[in-house]
Amino acid sequence: MPNPFGPSPARRALRRLPRRIALGGDRPHREPPNARVHALRFTGALLGLIALGGLLLALPWSAAAGRATTPVDALFTAVSATAVTGLVVVDTADHWSPFGQAVILVLMQIGGLGFAVGASLLLQMLRRGPNASLRDQLLLRDGAPALSLREAIDLTKRIVRYTFVVEGVGALLLAWQFSSALPLPHAAWHGLFHAVAAYCNAGFDLQGGFASMVPYQASIPVNLVLIGLIQAGALGYVVAADVWRCRRWRRLPLDSKLVLGTNAVLLAAAALFFLAVEWTAALAAFPVWAKPLGALFQSVAARTAGFATVNWADADPVTLFVWVGVMMVGGASGSTAGGVKLATVGVIGAAIAAALAGRPEAQVFGRRLATALVYRALAVVAVFVALHFAASALLAITEDFIGGQRIPFVALMFETMSALATVGVSTGITPDLSVPGKLLLCLAMIAGRLGPLTLTYALQRQQRPVRYRFPEESVRIG
After folding, report:
1. Which of 171, 187, 201, 420 has the most beta carbons within 10 angstroms of its beta carbon?
2. Which pLDDT tens digit goes with each residue over 219-259?
3. In 3-state terms, what secondary structure has residue 367?
4. In whole angstroms, what is the distance from residue 80 CA to residue 148 CA?
5. Residues 286, 80: Cα–Cα separation, whole Å
6. Where in the chain are the domains?
């Protein structure tokens, strides 16, 4: 006869005992990657790496002079290296010792490679959302694993292998070029440092005097190697793997087509614009034959990497204004580049073209884009623009009222977008910013590194199937 008053105290005590007892020889249970947990761990690891890097760079032996670097400058450098931005408040070659430069190199490598791996895993989970089976969609919506542990490990190994092979080849080619002016050990170190910085789209250099790559503005091999490394990092492993596997344009997945197409259009348009506007300004010191190469280099590097073969302080204000938009685009999703990403801009471009052509839905390369995807792309860009507006206004306030400096607003906009899009090009005002201004750019770099990916993940998780539709009614616009 069942007990009408519930289980006895002894039975309740038994129920509280653990159902599984781990023996000494048991191995810990490894779970597949969980989208929610993965995102939190990824963010925590990035912030922890910044804190550790800032502590190491603040040590006396990290500086060439043997004196401790101020905490703000050490933190700024750690954030810039980990977020693979390249903005600097002290010159990398002149201020930091070999140990400090090695710390920056490690931060760039972990920051760039770690973000590429982490973002690729998370985006691979999200990619299965609309096209996955019902089971995978339910798992993803509940935060459960939608990517097996074996798949995650295999993808990580491929990205790491691709990264080291590309960086290794680039380091050898650059060391060979640098060896004509430097002793072999120094040339090898410079080759490795610049190869990692270029592939990770970081923009740190060892030329000294805040010169970036200006000493090599007429060197065709150095320019072409850096362009190749920057593009390899900005497009990412997934696009490179698609190109290698398909080898024909029509066989490529729509995502890779959109990335490559948008990238080619932006590279050409930005290079032609820079060449036309800066022919007698920023490109004035270039030989005539090298000016197209210089314009192409700025189009590639100033959108994602932060290297420069020109002095951006000499650029026309209209170029600085246009480059605010160019820098905002960035590279491909899951790459080492920042920005709102190429595919996002491609989706919005397709939606605008559809609206101008009177089509009810966005189409590109013979495929229809889901309306929810267009909304998400618009949301990412709108939030990014709002962040840039707020950061630019705050930076103007800190430098005008706190720093007492009269810096042109277009230069502040340029510097803020360079930080937010983790690009790293500068008009030269960053070292002279006030402490609040430097901390504001630190926040902008962290937000720009994590923001688009976090927002995409949040929007994807909030998507729900629509069970009803409201009546349609016209609204006057324009």
Report:
1. 201
2. 999 999 999 999 999 999 989 999 999 989 989 999 899 99
3. strand
4. 33
5. 30
6. 32-462
